[in-house]
Amino acid sequence: MGALPKKTEGDLLRYGHFDDERREYVIERPDTPLPWINYLGTEAYFGIVSNTAGGYSFYRDAKLRRLTRYRYNNAPFDLGGRYLYVRDDVTGDFWSPSWQPTRSELDDYECRHGLSYTQIASSYRKIRAETLYFVPLGETLEVWRVRVTNERDTAAELSLFSSVEFCLWDAQDDATNFQRNFSTGQVEVADGVIYHKTEYRERRDHFAYFACSEPLAGFDTQRESFLGAYRGWDNPEAVERGAATDSLAHGWQPIGSHHVRLGLAPGETREISFVLGYAENPRDDKFDPPGSQTLNKRHVRPVIERWLRPETVEEGFATLRAGWDKLLGGLHVSTPDADTNRMVNVWNAYQNMMTFNLSRSTSFFESGIGRGMGFRDSNQDLVGFVHMVPERARERILDIAATQMATGGAYHQYQPLTKRGNNDIGDGFNDDPLWLILGVAAYVKETGDASILDEPVPYDNEPGSEAPLYEHLQRSLRYTQERLGPHGLPLIGRADWNDCLNLNCFSDTPGEPFQTTENVTGGTAESVFIAGQFVLAAKELAGLAGQRGLDAEAAECLAAAEKMTGVIVEHGWDGAWFRRAYDFYGNPIGSGENDEGQIFIEPQGMCVLGGVGLDDGLAAQALDSVAERLATPHGIVLQQPAYTSYRIELGEISSYPPGYKENAGIFCHTNPWIMIAEAMTGNGDRAFDYYRRINPSAREAVSEVHRCEPYVYAQMIAGKDAPTHGEAKNSWLTGTAAWNYVAITQWILGIRPELDGLRIDPVLPSDWPGFTATRVFRGATYEISVRREAGHPAQVIVDGAPIDGVVVPPAPAGATVRVEVVVS
């Protein structure tokens, strides 16, 4: 089935467009099919902001340090955020410059989502308001810079109201424990600054603040006083009245709202700044004596005053943009395809950084409560961003490895604030340990920093259990080798990459109902996917061992990979594709023997990535089966046929309706594995065709079908069995981002870090004449030019001289290397 058509200049973009020069996505009407969001922050303080100013903020951990409240699954879907209200004090008319929450009929509207900032501008009855939201580098605060302009011929008397609703820090408790929380809210106002100090009595170590650069006409900190009884955010009583109540919250629902009066002459613009921030008290008795209930504000007052100054805001915003210039400077490409250029150079790289920062914890589909940092997830994300911030990648690897257990197993997730594993989602996802090998290998290949392998890292963060990181990798491999099933394939445990394929559900007595069990230690279900992953990981560990001079160990790893390859071919091959697994009873899954779920995408990708079937034609045959049975115009579905009824022996996968999520949805994360596999077999046309099918920029013209943001990847697109085929869900935080970046940059464009240097080995679509790229690798800059010459043998020329092979040796840091590549 064909891919989406390429866009032409005549395409209508109903909701917005890319501004490539400014690296922004411009939304031109507020009623996007779903909230189209952006992220604020890149270090410790983060926020979500939608195109109508919805969202929330938190410090490091969206569950345990939530500053502002947000209600998921609400109606409207996007309700609660960084809202401003403008009131005409002459007529009493008021509106929201961000459209939400009043949804007034604005004369014009524009939202510009940029790299860690968002700007929303609108006009209403010739009053223009423009708000810039961003988190300055190195700070634990966010700035709202508001510019209000009177475009009338007469003077305007206006009021500006700000508003946030404070969360009581622990977002889970905040949303459930009302019998306590309705009595704990505490707010203090001093010198016009609103301090949210709930929990201060018991902990006295952190608080939030909300400040305004202008003298205040009033304020509110009690929600009901601001909104009025039986009212919502769309019609606050204080705004309607044109006067705040100076309420001080004691219990109930604390908020922050400033009231500023603005008298504007015709054509006049006023700039007002709001600062919302997080602070922790210094551990110093003279500032915070034992038993004191007095809020210590001394150390944050200079910070607040600095960021309320216009020149500081301007400088901070410029520094943020310059920071992104540096981050994106590691790779820049110019190809014949505009969508490829846009995603590789800006939006895919940007999404990679956000997934690195937040794993899968907080989006408009992830509440920030149920998940922390994923062990598997974070290791996969490494491959997409390691070239941008290698020093932070190193730190993340050590954090991840410290949550590994002494068995080699791993907590599936851990909390970013405590760095402790989540006990309720512990060991048993048997693919997890192998991802650590793949993540570390990606780091060492990119940086050449093999010293990380000698870093002492504890197991389960237990003091005294430290061992070199390299030993952690060895235990990861042994974890799989020590858990093999009846066919010699790895045990799946609770699940492998597909968390919803739960095959260790069984009946103790034949004929009796199946029992769901969390006790997977005795489960005999096996995974062909983990087998393919093991082959790949064993080869990567062999490379690291060889680099360390451990030749015998390298040979053992390669022998283990070869042995597992033989097991896959014997027990994992179904005649035209790789099987998916064996269930608890030894029945094959993902086989022509099954009535449904006959072929799955995951093993076709992962086995080929491990090199299985490349030499005997099995890989090509499996990929042909994918093209014939799984590919759709909107991407490659996870399996076919879809499961049409619930099957307890398969677990959660069959609980979804056909075409959604793991039940034959287009799980975009897996699509780039097939792109890479096609590139490995030399099929550039099919690899790039698949790439364009799920490329968000290429899907912009079908936004009404796709619905999610056209500038970032989504986790899932509804499959061909679904009534909403082509509709995306779960955007932003997905391994799709990193893997698509790897597929296009390292395999189709072929610019791939290796232990011995930078491989440049493109597998291009046949209609491309070539491309150019600039790649920073280990401190040197490689200026790469690729051109196609029919009938000409492939050749790599470095600084004017041909080299043997396609791996360019590392150059000294600071050097510029010119590389010409000829492909036939």
Describe the protein's architecture and organization.
By secondary structure, the protein is of the alpha+beta class. It folds into 3 domains: 223 residues, Glycosyltransferase (Alpha/alpha barrel), CATH 1.50.10; 294 residues, Beta-galactosidase, Chain A, domain 5 (Distorted Sandwich), CATH 2.70.98; 73 residues, Maltose phosphorylase, domain 3, CATH 2.60.420.10. Helix content is 27%, strand content 24%. The chain contains 20 helices and 42 strands. The protein has a 10-stranded antiparallel sheet with strand order 1-2-9-10-11-12-19-16-15-14, covered by helices on one side. Strands 6, 7, 8, 13, 17 and 18 form a 6-stranded antiparallel sheet that branches. Strand 11 and strand 12 form a beta hairpin. Helix 9 runs parallel beside helix 20, helix 13 packs antiparallel against helix 14 and helix 17 packs antiparallel against helix 18. The longest helix has 22 residues. About 3% of the residues have low confidence.
Topology:
Layout: E1 16-19, E2 24-27, E3 37-40, E4 45-50, E5 57-59, E6 66-68, E7 83-88, E8 94-95, E9 108-113, E10 117-124, E11 127-134, E12 141-150, E13 156-169, H1 171-176, H2 178-181, E14 187-190, E15 193-196, H3 200-203, E16 206-212, E17 218-222, H4 223-227, H5 237-241, E18 254-264, E19 269-280, H6 301-307, H7 310-328, E20 331-334, H8 338-358, E21 373-374, H9 375-385, H10 390-401, E22 413-414, H11 432-447, E23 456-457, E24 467-468, H12 469-481, E25 526-527, H13 528-547, H14 551-572, E26 581-582, E27 588-589, E28 599-600, H15 601-609, H16 618-629, E29 631-632, E30 635-636, E31 639-640, E32 666-667, H17 671-680, H18 684-694, H19 703-706, E33 714-717, E34 728-731, H20 736-748, E35 751-754, E36 757-760, E37 770-777, E38 780-788, E39 795-798, E40 801-802, E41 807-808, E42 816-823
Parallel strand pairs: 38-42
Antiparallel strand pairs: 1-2, 2-9, 3-4, 4-5, 6-13, 7-8, 7-13, 9-10, 10-11, 11-12, 12-19, 13-18, 14-15, 15-16, 16-19, 17-18, 20-37, 21-22, 23-24, 25-26, 26-27, 28-31, 29-30, 32-33, 33-34, 35-36, 36-41, 37-38, 39-40, 39-42
Helix pairs in contact: 8-9, 8-20, 9-10, 9-11, 9-20, 10-11, 11-12, 11-13, 12-13, 13-14, 13-15, 15-16, 15-17, 17-18, 17-20, 18-20
